[in-house]
Write a structure and sequence with these properties.
eight-stranded mixed sheet, about 260 residues, about 35% helix, alpha+beta, about 20% strand
């Protein structure tokens, strides 16, 4: 799309550049707590990175080598990749295994570590990332997308309006439900329904969560306060079968706006 293009990382340099971008956004900008190694390396890296795929947005108009042109990233982990690391990343906060084991015939994809450079936080960049995700889903026959999405600030009560709205209007049914682990569980139903201003709740919602809802995403049971990253997390479940045909057409590679 113009000078922007989206594709998977293929080199160590590209993955490290994505980790550096994540560090700048999560630690420098948003104030996540860094350990000694992260402070030295200036990269957000963990044990899941080597087995995951890394979706990258490049601005090809920028000077320098390709790994210096990365302006956005998403980390993708399929069921077969998660098996190599003894589970999905989000399993440290939510009982993901309950869902995946109950549907062994389905292929799950965990979306995580989403971030974009501040000057590229536009509709175009986000749409390009979603075009890449949709192409990836088709390539790997993905049935369900899932993962944690965050509110800034690790105090769930500060997000009472949005959490209550999600709990009352977007909760997953029993077939798809995923519950926060007992030691991390925070109730989301913090306000009575008559006290929830739906328009204000949607206006206050992080764009990423709002985007998942538009596509048909459901919300798991309970919020989690992530003290390390300084966020309040909710769990997203998005079966591909719930995505409406108009969004599939919109994010398809043949859409005119990508020419």
């Amino acid at each position: 799309m113009g000078a922007l293009e989206v594709r998977l990382a293929t080199t160590t340099e590209e993955i490290e550049a994505a980790q550096e971008l994540r560090f700048r956004v999560f630690y420098d900008e948003m104030g996540a707590k860094k350990d000694a190694l992260q402070a030295i390396e200036q990269r957000d890296a963990d044990r899941f990175d080597p087995v995951c795929d890394h979706l990258l947005v490049y601005d090809t108009a920028l000077p320098g080598p390709q790994h210096k042109q990365i302006v956005g990233t998403y980390r993708l982990m399929r069921t077969d990749q998660a098996n190599k690391t003894h589970g999905f990343y989000s399993a440290s906060e939510y009982d993901v295994q309950r869902l995946t084991l109950s549907k062994p015939e389905l292929n799950f994809l965990e979306l995580g570590r989403s971030c974009v450079k501040p000057e590229y936080r536009s509709k175009r960049t986000v749409e390009l990332l979603w075009q890449g995700i949709w192409a990836y889903c088709r390539r790997h026959s993905i049935d369900v997308m899932m993962g944690c999405a965050s509110f800034q600030g690790a105090v769930p009560m500060a997000h009472a309006l949005c959490l209550s709205f999600l709990n009352q209007n977007a909760r997953a049914d029993s077939e798809w439900d995923v519950r926060a682990l007992p030691e991390h569980y925070h109730a989301m139903d913090l306000m009575p329904a008559e006290g929830v201003n739906m328009k204000l709740a949607l206006f206050s919602m992080p764009p990423l969560i709002k985007g998942y809802l538009r596509l048909g995403g459901m919300i798991g049971d309970g919020a989690v306060a992530d003290e390390s990253f300084g966020t309040t997390d909710v769990f997203i479940i998005l079966p591909v079968s719930r995505i409406s045909s108009r969004y599939i057409s919109y994010y398809g590679a043949e859409a005119d706006r990508f020419i």
